[in-house]
Amino acid sequence: MEGSAVIKVLLLDDEVLVRSGIRMILESDPEIRVVAEAGDGKGVADLVAEHRPDVVLTDIQMPGVDGLEVTRVVTALPDAPAVVVLTTFDLDEYVHTALRRGATGFLLKDTPPRDLVNAVHVVRRGEAMLSPAVTRRLLGEFATGGAVESAKARLTALTSREREVAVAVAEGWSNAVIAGHLGVSEATVKVHLGRIMSKVEAANRTQVAILVHDAGLA
């Protein structure tokens, strides 16, 4: 296999045994390699610059520099890798904050090994690792009236087709499913999504989903 085909992962968790277990699970897939790991997010920008990971998998609660700060720092980098946060509880204000700061998705620490591996492939493709049902509960738990009005205002910039794509993203549909539903190619869906993110100033499809949920459209 060519090195360029391997998905490179940076793993951050303060528990050595947890990191070892996740590394073992991920590297059971020949297309995934953990290129670096650390016990917290200190120096994460340097680690990203040195190892050029495709995905940063980070515990959300760590001593020192936690997953929220990791998300903020990494998503602000040029050509930023996808950030996925690991958490113990799905309805967690920390997760909500991480998603708003640009995390691509989140996983529970008891996620089955096969789903953990699949998640890395999903976010590497530029898609979100979010359960629609959990996302609705999570975002509904912390939504505010101001956020609703702000979200509606930002979405007015979208065309009807772009709005349709944005709602489909918020429903958790993949690009392939959206393309089949609309009768267009996946490439066309990606073009729409790129325009949507630009118009609403979203860093990724997860933030598009949050905006749509805030506006009450999904």
CATH class of the largest domain: Alpha Beta
Helix/strand-derived category reads: alpha/beta
What is the helix tally?
11
Task: State the helical fraction.
Answer: 40-55%
CATH architecture of the largest domain: 3-Layer(aba) Sandwich
Please write the string of helix (H) and strand (E) elements.
Answer: EHEHEHEHEHHHHHHH
Number of strands: 5
**Tell me about the biggest sheet?**
5 strands, parallel
* Overall number of structural domains: 2
Rg from C-alpha positions?
A: 17 Å
Strand order within the widest beta sheet: 2-1-3-4-5
Q: Quick one: overall form?
A: globular
What is the mean pLDDT? 88
| Poorly predicted parts | none
CATH topology of the largest domain: Rossmann fold
CATH superfamily of the largest domain: Response regulator
Keywords: DNA-binding, Phosphoprotein, Transcription, Transcription regulation
Pfam families: GerE (PF00196), Response_reg (PF00072)
InterPro entries: CheY-like_superfamily, NreC/VraR/RcsB-like_REC, Sig_transdc_resp-reg_C-effctor, Sig_transdc_resp-reg_receiver, Tscrpt_reg_LuxR_C, WalR-like
Protein name: Response regulator transcription factor
